[in-house]
Design a protein that fits this description.
This protein is an alpha+beta fold. The chain has 2 domains: 1-33, no CATH class; 41-126, Immunoglobulin-like. It has one helix spanning 7-33; strands at 41-45, 49-50, 57-65, 71-81, 86-97, 101-109, 118-126. The strands form 2 sheets. Strands 1, 2, 3 and 6 form a 4-stranded antiparallel sheet that branches. It has a 3-stranded antiparallel sheet with strand order 5-4-7, with no helix packed on it. A hairpin with a 6-residue loop joins strand 2 and strand 3 (57-65). The longest helix is centred in the first third of the chain and has 27 residues, at 7-33. The N and C termini lie far apart (55 Å). This is TIGR02588 family protein. The chain crosses the membrane at residues 7-29.
């Protein structure tokens, strides 16, 4: 017994085959061209913002991973400079920073951050 396809079934079948082939091709090209280098983290600090209660200052921090692999448990230290010793230090941990992406966080200080007086750097990370 021979069954005949409906034209809609044929279109859906062909479209799904093309879609699966395109996804497989994209994944193959991505796997072939992506390097296996370590994470390359940079930390950028934004402009301080006064909190509504005026008892603290909040500073946005952006962590960017330029590397070819992800970073886990990224420890970031942000400090207010006031001479040789930092006036105040804040730390936070980002659970995961994928390759070629960025994550944002905020830290809070009790003292007003001076212009160009906020330093931030990644202290350490783990690789998955």
């Amino acid at each position: 017994m021979k069954t005949h396809w409906n034209w809609l079934e044929g279109v859906v079948f062909i479209a799904s085959c093309v879609l699966v082939a395109l996804v497989m091709g994209y994944l193959a090209v991505d796997a072939w061209t992506t390097g296996s280098g370590p994470p390359d983290l940079t930390v950028r600090v934004g402009a301080p913002v006064a909190a509504a209660n005026a008892k603290e200052w909040r500073v946005p921090v952006t962590v960017t991973n330029h590397g070819d692999s992800a970073a886990e448990e990224v420890h970031v230290r942000v400090s207010l400079r006031g001479g040789r010793e930092p006036k105040e230090v804040a730390e936070f941990v980002l659970a995961y920073v994928p390759r070629h992406s960025q994550r944002e966080a905020w830290v809070a200080f009790r003292q007003e951050p001076p212009p160009e007086g906020v330093e931030a750097h990644a202290v350490g990370f783990a690789t998955p």
